[in-house]
Amino acid sequence: MKLPKELYNGIIIFIGIGLYFLLMEVLNLSNLFYLRLLNIVFVYYGANKTLKSNFLEGKNLFSHNAISAFLTSIIGIFLSIAGLLAYIYAKGGDSYIQNLSETFLFVGTPTAVTYTITLLIEGIVSALIVAFSLMLYWKEKYPAD
Where are the domains of the chain? Predict the structure, then answer.
């Protein structure tokens, strides 16, 4: 059974983000917040790969491609957040969150669930931004109205 390209590329996003953050953890760079922003590169890569595949298949409908790019991004983000939650609980749960939340702006002491929900909301917004910016990039590929 062949996986849909949105799911396949979402898994690629998840693997890329997971390996990137594990590498940052091993190199003791996880406290540098600006390096965390580079995870958007993996989201762009996966969504762009989906759009490229759609165009090669002849799918030029703007709305279909926008939904496909957003779905790819959101799958990768949901998988990444689920992986992060599992990783947090494997490292000690709420006590491990205190190490992670030092570089984020949290009031009080966030729990693992609060932390991941906040990142999920951020991820959904970034998925929208990625989908819309890629659709602007690919706009010239669509037939003229």
Answer: 5-139
Write down the H helix ranges in the chain. 5-26, 33-36, 40-56, 62-90, 94-100, 112-137
Question: What confidence tens digit (pLDDT) does each residue in 74-119 have?
Answer: 999 999 999 999 998 998 887 877 766 555 556 667 788 888 888 8
- pTM for this predicted structure: 0.87
Whether 31 and 102 have beta carbons less than 8 Å apart is answered as yes
Between CA 140 and CA 145 the distance in angstroms is: 12
Contacts of 52 (CB under 8 A, 6+ apart): none
Which three-class secondary structure state does DSSP give residue 133?
helix
Residue 81 near residue 120 (C-beta atoms within 8 A): yes
- Confidence band for 124, pLDDT divided at 50, 70 and 90: very high
Angle between helices 112-137 and 40-56 (to 10 degrees): 40
